[in-house]
Amino acid sequence: MERSRTRLVSKTIVEKILSEHSGLDAYAGDIVVADIDAALVQDGTGPLAVQQLQKLGMEQAANPERTVLFIDHAAPSPRKELSNAHKILRDFAAKTGAILSEVDEGVCHQRMVEDYMNPGEVLIGADSHTCTAGALGAFATGMGSTDVAIGIASGKTWLRVPETIKVYVTGEFKKGVYPKDLMLHFIGMIGADGATYQSIEFCGPTIDAMDMSGRFTLANMAVEAGAKAGLFKTDETTKKYLEERGRGDRWREIAADADATYERVVEIDVTDLEPTISCPHTVDNTKTISEVVGTKVDQVFIGTCTNGRIEDLRIAAQILAGKSRNPNTRLLVCPASKEVYLQAIEEGILAKLASAGAAIINPGCGACVGVHGGILGDGEVCLATQNRNFQGRMGNTEAFIYLSSPAVAAATALEGVIADPRKYL
Amino acid sequence: MDNRMQIKGKVFKFGDSISTDHIAPGRLFHLRTNLPELAKHVLEDADTEFAQNVQPGDFVVAGKNFGLGSSREHAPTIIKIAGVGAVLAQSFARIFYRNAINVGLPVLICDTTQIDRGDELEVDVGKGEIRNVTKGITIQAKPLPDVMIKILNDGGLLEHFRKHGGFALDA
Q: Is B163 exposed, middle or buried, given 0-12, 13-18 or 19+ CB atoms closer than 10 A?
């Protein structure tokens, strides 16, 4: 898109944040070198990042108290090669003062929003779902190990300021329909490459009324539409979330200018939205629940950075309490973080889920990455609340993965086939 | 590595939506600190014989959204270690594209519908010119952004940073 620079004054959220962090008056299409506020790596990408810094002779962290190394993808380690990879992260943390998030603490993206990220900040992370923190009004994006390594050592990264797609959401969710259904519907609509190289701003009355948990789900999956980031303006809901975590003073207003330039506007009315499912083997292969009801499921997995929060576990417990899972369908539940895990214990949620036949997994990525904690057998079908269903994702190319909300997952665990949760609510 | 270089080789053709799970699957997570070993399995979940048959300079040619999914830089790295000269696709997922340039693997966006498995190609990375010798046609790729040409010419991001002592991306 050609722009007449001198006449531009209004900015999108991402243009504002990247202008602030680069000292430039930056607009979509510009290349900037930006200061970063925080960086993350995880146990799949961090060891390579550390090795790259060793090659460069720069084993250092410019901002160690906001450089976080997560052991979450293979936690606790299922094999010696990974135990050795974990040692690389522990050694780097000891050497540089960077923070190590150990095997008990949970998924990087949930941990970043709980403890580290604030509105208006820039986060780069060696994990594609780093975009989760966009829900707090931050610019957060996934990159590779070398990019993040250099970000850790120098405190800077280069970025092309992305164009923005505005997603304007109206209407009230009907009972049994959730932000996850909205996001799957949206990705099905624009495609897995529908927002490539661009950022997304989620806005409108439905978003204003949405809790932080729902906003995190949307931001988390922005990358599944190909986006660089998924951003939200900040409001009282953001402020309350930060206050509850002792960071009320870090709240600030983040919003796009009223006449900012968008690549396009997508309007979605959720009034008639139905529970939505992504079918094998791509996230944009979406169907409404009625089209897939009755599909036999061998394993249900509730958890992850997408839907492993306390709000998600409450919904699952509401549906499963006092009942039993189908004897032919195993149920795995993995709280996203230790905070979620402890809260779920306190509320009696884990007891209800375990009594219903759930195997409770320690906080972390659980079965999502195909490394441990629930690898699928040949020909098996899994319905999961995670963000991705690529062939081979859960450790077996001969398996089939469906994605859904926690409510659909809980109902499916009860019936042993993909089930509509609305009759249980 | 020089972006003006000419690469010659045969085509291995893939479809749309080849994910990082196809290229470097999660079940081989434990090999990520042993890249030469991981490279023996490159693209295994999309073509079980690719890793055994690929020769230095050969091309991976695909449809839309190549490399979607994870941020794992291991994916382009093992394609490069396997000797692939360049990846040609109708479009790339953002993180894969950036990672490929960072590790010095040429990636070209072009119309791949007229390229088939086994075709012989001559590719001029700098010009973005793809000559399909087998079919006797020439295809023009979309030029790489200037920033990425700079990084690729320096041999990847690490070398760029080493050479300039920081980012040196201005025109």
A: exposed
DSSP secondary structure string for all residues of B85-99: -EEEES-B-HHHHHH
In this prediction the pTM is 0.96
Report the residue of chain A nearest B171, measured CA to CA.
A31
Peptide bond into A281 cis (omega under 30): yes
CA distance B78 to B39: 5
Query: Domain range spanning residue A286?
Result: 277-424
Give the pLDDT band (50/70/90) at residue A334: very high
Rounded to whole angstroms, the Cα distance separating A63 from A263 reads 34
Q: How far apart are CA A119 and CA A5, in angstroms?
A: 27
Domains contained in chain B, number: 1
Tokens for A302, please give them: 């509730």
In this complex, do B94 and A197 lie within 8 Å of one another by their Cβ atoms? yes
Q: Which of B71, B73, B146 to mutate to test the interface with A (most CBs of A within 10 A)?
A: B71
Q: Give the separation between CA A408 and CA A382, rounded to whole angstroms.
A: 12
pLDDT at A6: 46
Amino acid of residue A365: C
In-domain check, residue B152: no
Picking from B93, B157, B166, the nearest residue to A147 by CB comes out as B157
The maximal CA–CA distance of chain A, rounded, in angstroms, is 67
- Those residues whose C-beta lies under 8 Å from the C-beta of residue A11, and which sit 6 or more positions away, are A19, A27, A256, A257, A260
| Domain assignment of residue B163, yes or no | no
What is the residue range of B108's domain?
6-143
Angstrom distances, CA of residue A26 to CA of A15, A99, A364, A373, A386:
6, 32, 37, 44, 35
Per DSSP bridges, beta strands A358-360 and A381-384 are unpaired
Residues of chain B scoring pLDDT < 70: 1-4, 171
Residue B142 neighbours by CB under 8 Å, 6+ apart: B108, B109, B110, B128
Q: Is residue A16 part of a domain?
A: no
Of A56, A196, A395, the CB nearest to B27: A395
Q: Which chain B residue has the Cα nearest residue A158? A: B167
The predicted structure's pLDDT at residue B5: 75
* Averaged pLDDT score across all residues of chain A: 97
Report the number of distinct structural domains present in chain A.
Answer: 1
Query: Is A137 within a domain?
Result: no
The answer to whether B157 and A146 have CB atoms below 8 angstroms apart is yes
Residue A230 and residue A202 in contact, taking contact as beta carbons nearer than 8 Å: yes
